[in-house]
Each structure stands twice: as C-alpha cells, then as structure tokens.
Amino acid sequence: MHTLSVQTQSTAITEPRWVRYTLISITLIFLSLFLLIPLISVFTEGLRGGINKYFAAMVEPDAIAAIQLTLITAAIAVPLNLVFGVAAAWAIAKFEFTGKSLLITLIDLPFAVSPVISGLIFVLLFGLQGVFGEWLAASDIKLIFAVPGIVLATIFVTFPFVARELIPLLQSQGNDEEEAALVLGATGWQTFWHVTLPNIKWGLLYGVILCNARAMGEFGAVSVVSGHIRGLTNTMPLHVEILYNEYNFIAAFAVASLLAILALITLALKTFVEWRVQTQVLINDPDVAS
Amino acid sequence: MSIEIQNVSKTFNKFNALNNINLHIPTGELVALLGPSGCGKTTLLRIIAGLEFADKGSIFFYGEDTTARSVRDRQVGFVFQHYALFRHMTVFENVAFGLRMKPRAQRPSDKQIQSKVDDLLNLVQMQGLADRFPRQLSGGQRQRIALARALAVEPKVLLLDEPFGALDTKVRKELRRWLRHLHDTVHITSVFVTHDQEEAMEVSDRVVVMNKGQVEQVGTPDELYEHAVNPFVYQFLGNVNVFKGHLDQDSHFHTNDDNRVASASAYVRPHDLEISRIADGESIAATVLSVLSLGATVRVELLDVQDITLEAELSKELSRTLDLKKGDQVFVKPKQMRVFTASGAVVAAA
Amino acid sequence: MLLRLKQHSVLPGFHLALGYTIFYLSLIVLIPLSMVFFKTSTMGWERFWTVVTEPRVMASYRITFGAALIAAMINAFFGLLVAWVLERYQFFGKRFIDALVDLPFALPTAVAGIALASIYSSNGWIGQYLEPLGIKVAFTPLGIIVALTFIGLPFVVRTVQPVLQDLERELEEAAASLGATRWQTFKCVIFPSIFPPLLTGFALAFARGLGEYGSVVFIAGNMPMISEITPLLIITKLEQYDYAGATAIAVVMLVVSFILLFLINLLQWWTGKRCR
Q1: Which residue of C6, C7, C10 is in closest CB contact with B71?
Q2: CA–CA distance from A50 to each of A56, A251, C111 (Å)?
Q3: pTM over 0.90, yes/no
Q4: Interface pTM (ipTM) of the complex?
C-alpha cells in the first residue's frame, strides 16, 4: 500500500486520500450507470434467446440488406468527406486569407444542426413537394426514400469530421517542411505526397475513424429521408428501430450489438491513434531531443 | 555566382519590412546579414530564395533576372532556422530528397544517388548516421544534415537562416568554424542571417548590417568594426561607452563646455578605455563600481562624474598592476574613439 | 472579394483547395440549409407564427429546452468530476475508463436509445430498483434527461480535460506555499481557469441535446404535451405531409442552434485569448 501511494503521488500537493477515493468511486459509479451498463445490456439482451437466435437475426435477408446499405453509404460518404477535409485543411492551415474564421464556422455548421433537420433539408430539395421534386418525378429519378437521399444525408452529418481534425494539426506543423521541399525542387503534388501527407497520416486516420463511425451509425437524418422500406432503404440503425418497434427485442439487440461492436472497434482504434500521435509528438519535439 | 538586389521593398500589413534595399553579393563570398530581430534580414533572405515575393524591385543571379522565377527554378540551397528536416524520413532520404524529386529525365540513378549522398554525408562528417531519423540526432547533427540536403541539388547559392540560432553556445562555436571551413572547400556564394555580431564577424567575408528594413553599412568585419559609419553600426558590433560632449571649431571632441560649436557623442570600446591611477590633461575621473574576472580579461565597471556607467576591459596583468578595488578613485582616458554628430554622421577618427 | 489571400505564399494549390472547399461546402451544406429559410419565406409571417406557437409545439420547446438544460447541468457537474479524476488520479482501469468516455460519440444513437429504454423500463436492470421508490424513468420526461445526459457527457469531459492537463502545477504549488488549503486552491486558482472550457462544454452538450433524436425517441414515450421533443414533432409533421409546418419548426430550431454556435465560438475565442 505504501509503495503504491508513493508511485501515485508525483507531487506533495493533492487531496487527502479519502477525498480521492470518494471522487474516484463517484466517477466510477456514474460512468457505470450511464455508459457501461447500457453497453453491456446491448449484448445480454441480444443473447437472451440463446446464441442461435442471436446469429439468426443477423443472417436474415433484411438484416443483410441493411448491413450492405450501411457499408455502401459509408464507402461513399467517407472518401468524399476525406477529400474535402484535406482540401479545406490545406487552404485554411497553409494560407492567410480574409474570411477564414467564417469559413471554419461554416464547415462546423452540420454539427450544430439537429439530425432531423439534416434529413429535412434534403426532403425539401428533392422530395415530391421539393424544389426539384417535380422535375425529378418527371425524369423518373427518385432521390428521397431511396439510397441517394440516405447517402446525401450521411455526407451532410459527417461533413466536418476530417476537416476539423486536420486543420489544427496542419496549423501546428507550420510551413517549413513544405518550403524546404519546394526549395529542393519538388513540385506541389510531390510536396504534398512525400512531405505533407506522411506528417498528417495519423490525424487523417483519426478523422476517418470518427467520420466512419458516424456514417454507419447515423439515425435521425437517415430516418427522415429513408422511407423505411425493408430490404431496400433500411440501414442498420433503421433496421434496429423497426425490429424494436415490432417488439422483436432479441433481433433488435442482436443487430444493435453489431453496431456496438463497431463502436468498440472505433474506440480502440481511436485510443491507439491518440497514443501514436502522442508518442510521435513527444519524439519529434526538438526541445525534448536536444 | 553573384547576387544583385535592386530597389527591393516589402510591406507586411502596413509594416515596412524592407525599404528600398540595394545590395551586391560577389561570387564565392560568404556574406552575413546582421541586425536586430525585426530588421528585415530574414525577409530579405527569403526574397532572395523566392520563398517570399518583393512588392517592388528585382533580384539578379549572375546578371540574370530571377525576380519572377519560382522557388523551384531558382536553384538555391536553403537551410531553415529550425532545419525543417522531413521527420518521417531517414537522414539518407532527407539528403536524397532533392535528387529524387527531379523530373524523370534528369533524375540520377539509384546508384548515383547513393554515392552522391555518401559523399555529402562525408563532407558534413555524418557518415554512418544515414539510417537515423532526425529525432534521433542532436541539434548540431540536424544542422549538418540540413546543410547536406541543401547542397545535394548543387545549388548556385546557399542561403542560411539563423543557422546556429537554436544551438547551445559550445556547439554553435564549433559549427561556425566548421561552416567557414566548409565554405573554403566548396566556394559557393552563401548568405546567412544572424543577430549575433560575433558570429557574423567570425564566419563571414563580408557583413551587411541592417536596421529597420534598411542597410546601414556593408563591409568586411574589420572595416565595420574600425570604421562604423553611424552610431547604430558601432553599437551593434560590440559593447560601447558613450561620452556626450561637443565639437570645437577644428572638429575636436570635448566633454567640457569650452568652445562649443555642435553637440556630439564619442563612442569608445571597453578595451580602448585606459584606466590610470594618476590624472592627465584629458582624462575623466571615475569611481570603480565592480571588478569582474572573465578568464583572460577583467571587466571593470565605473561611474564617471556625469553619473554615467562605463565599462572597461583590461588584460589580467594590467589589472594586477593597478590592483583595482570597489570604490577606488581612478581616471579613464579613451585610447581610440569614434565621434558622431547628433544626426549620426561620422566626425573624425581620433 | 471576401476570400482573398492576405499574403502571397510560395505553397501551391491555394485556389484549387479553396475553390473545391467552397464548392463542396455550398453543394452539401449551404444550399440545402438555405432551403429551410427559402421554404418558410413562402408561407407568410402570420401562418409561420401560428404554426410555431401552437400549444403542442410550445410544449415540445419546453420539454426539449428543459431536458437539455438539466442534462447539460448534470453533465457539467459530473463531466468536471470525470475530467478531474482522469487527469489527476491513478487507479486501476483508468485507460479503459478514459476510452469509454467517448462511447456516446461512437455508439449509434438508436443503439443507445434502445439500451437505455430497456434498462430503465420497469423491469429493466436499473428500472426495477427505481420502480418501488416511485421513480419512473422510461417513457417519462425523466427518460429524456437520462438519454441527453448519456449523449452530452463527452462534450464536457473532452473540453475540460485538456485545459486541466495544461494547467501549470506550479500555480497550485504556489497557492499551497502561500498557505491556501486544497479547497481554497481549487476554488480560487483552479476553478477560474477551467471555468471557460466548462462553460463551453456545457454549451456544446446543451446544443447537442436540443437537436438529439435517436437516443430520445425510444425512452421518451413520445406523449404529446408531456414527453414529445421538438425534433420528433418535425418528423410527425413530415409523416403527415405537413412540409410547411415541419419547416417552420425547423427554422426556429436552426435559429436557436446558430445563436448557440455563435455563443460557443465567442466562448472559445475568449478562452483562447485568455490562455495566450
């Protein structure tokens, strides 16, 4: 016990032991109630009917269609927002121009909008009564209550993730290395590929992980534009909702547990990347090394 | 490769960084841009490199106008203040970078690159560290790699921005000598920026003293030290004592009030200030404030009758003979001084 | 022109990158968002006002604002506590707990919604112990608060934590050496410097709570006038093909969100300025 307290006390100034233990206990109880128990319940509820029913819920055709649609949606939304994020971060972090802070605020806008409204705006654009509604109907193109609408709404809600990870990262790295590459005769693209990209790869991955998690898990916005057509326009979260509302709790939680696993993988990757970035910053810090 | 700078001006957000600069840098010389921080020296260097563009004026490399040329095409070597080594590449890859980025037709073969990089690492005495990453190197080693990387593309001019600024004193002195030696071997026209007058004097063939976006004086270290054209240059190049006084009809400087014609100041280096126990015609009475041994020399702080603090530097032997103590009454006399009028013009070298 | 380079730079790609950024931003965000205002402008002020002040809509504002506010306050308190414990104390499983805090960011809201609904229902893991005490969580406004607390927690923790980490230990040591007790040090030295981020985190959690839909609908019970949140009302109106009504309510929510966003930006700017 004594050695433990020596290890933990890096400084003589801290709270009395009883205060520390009380605070730690309250924290653990609070987090268990609000985070841990809900997480565990997803798996136990899903397994309530035994392992066979659990897996049966996942291989059912509608579930498979939902999984496929979720993967397709993420596969379109994430790369698009990735390219945008890199372009936006390059313009914002590497150059000084008027209107920059306004641009940053506008990029963050989708985070401030309720998911329901994120869906609504696309209904207003492409729905039957929407601005392009009549024209789309005449051309026999269906965007709302169809896959394109789901993809659009997903792109909207995951829009800022990559950009907002990269902007501060690029800003903190300064322009020195890029300038050095240019002086050495590299072209703009060569500079970006060989110098900038390797330096931001972890931040990029971080943004992509978060963007992907949201893209696969988005519910509100997608719910508005989907039309809930089984096997066609249901993503995994929507499929969970339908099963739940039909009182098919075991199947609902079984599919939900897949999404929970995705969340756990996201958290694990995120923690790993954070650790990588931290150690990288530490060893790259010239003040520490010299 | 000479560099010609003509009428270059640059403004940042209404701040005049450079004000009509004209400068000639002769082929093969190592030239220092010296000045206090914010004087525009780094901006001038970056304009020469093409990393910054002048609002007005032109840059010529060996008679050829390069003003409009991009940084890629100027063929300059640039060493950044914080080295800007590519942190995710090894030392070898860093040095090879410029060669690998050449268009395919001009790109050397892997074998040629290998031997070229080896040669350069030998030149900067870093052989055997080719596989290290920048973070595994000391500051001095990073500096050498940055230099090797800049030289790899065989630049026509070498530009160095505060090359020793981030190093500790001992390494800095070592690298200075080494840079001078290196320049004597490769003979590439080089410009480096520094705020350290000792560094500028020790390393360069020629020093350009800058202040507030303007060139104050250009000359060899000796010329500048002995024949500063204005008080700023004189003060910037070393410690100095200032005596306020007047000029008489023959333009002689006096600290007393006789025959005053115009006010003027006399500038005296600490080692040109003679201390004596006995008064003589022109000497000034002063009290010893402190005696500080600096190894080979002794620094004496004095307070003169005008209540101005003076600083004198004596040899150890002389100080032993004088045997100065705090509170002693002594007399000081300049062996050599430089007199400037109130407007900053040189009067005469006494 | 608004977006113009202040200083010429040697780095290439400014026009390409900025041009693409603005193009994509307009296409995905600005034009679609402006539709809401465009659509509303066609319905006339009087009708707009009638729709957004209907009793059922007013009740939904009260429920949404009230629940988001209470949840944000709970989060401000516990978020500060969690950040403090994670930053200052060593205990078994700390890394795991630290990663777990981000769960609400990573877990799809629908999953959170059904999980919370099931454990707080009258025969759920937690609900069964609350039921005898006369506390009903699921299918009441209390359930909304629970869901919004879940959703908002990471906002407070993740804004306070880095500031707490960067706080100079010397300040506390100085305070202690000057004779301050630990509580005095916290109150007078530590709290003032973490207050701006705490307020930012509170505002972020509140803003998120206002718009939240997925985690709430499963646990709220969704009874008009009692436990119906504003985003749900928008969906209800849409399902009844009342596009104008849905859009009018959306405009009210958007305006509130934008004001909050503006305040948060102001707060962050203020925090940044103070730190520098």
Answers
A1: C10
A2: 10, 11, 20
A3: no
A4: 0.90
